[in-house]
# Entry
Amino acid sequence: MGLFKKKPTEYATLSLNMRLRPIDRGSYYEDILNKILKKGKIGVVDGGGTEFTKEEGPLGCDVNIDYYKDKEESLIELLKQFPTSKGSKLILMGENEERSFDIGNLEGMAVYLNGVDLDKEVYETCSADVVFNEMSKLIGKDLVVFSWWQGNRETALYFYGANYERMKSAIEPFIATYPLCQKCRIEQLV
# Structure
């Protein structure tokens, strides 16, 4: 029986230190990884999940991978090079042991737009979509992955790229002038 007939028998979890909505986790990681794993005959993606709270939105997420035992090194090398944020891990689950590898080279930035304390006119005339689109343009080629979440009191925009300080510097002039960015806060995601 050839490689195409055998089912993957080993299990791994890609634990992403990233604030991604489930749909973004699927688009950026599950779908793309599944294609790469299948093409390289390494394995397949077997779903995933997002840690989420009503108050804070997405906190982190996992992608489950079934892989061929003889392709373990290929899987490790692939995921060490895959664009993930610092603090992400690849966890290989063996019969009697669990092994973990630190992966990730992206830095995260969250911009929290105040959704309740600005003048009513600001909310009527400004758009979080405009903020997101303009910030994405300003960050430019440094931007690799993005997501967002809308809560009861604020809207969070999540950007992942090569350098937090560069991303922050790129958006600061816009933040200073766009009314919806009043009272926003910027945080480095670690």
Q: What stands out?
A: The mean pLDDT is 94. Residues 15 and 62 are 4 Å apart (CA to CA).
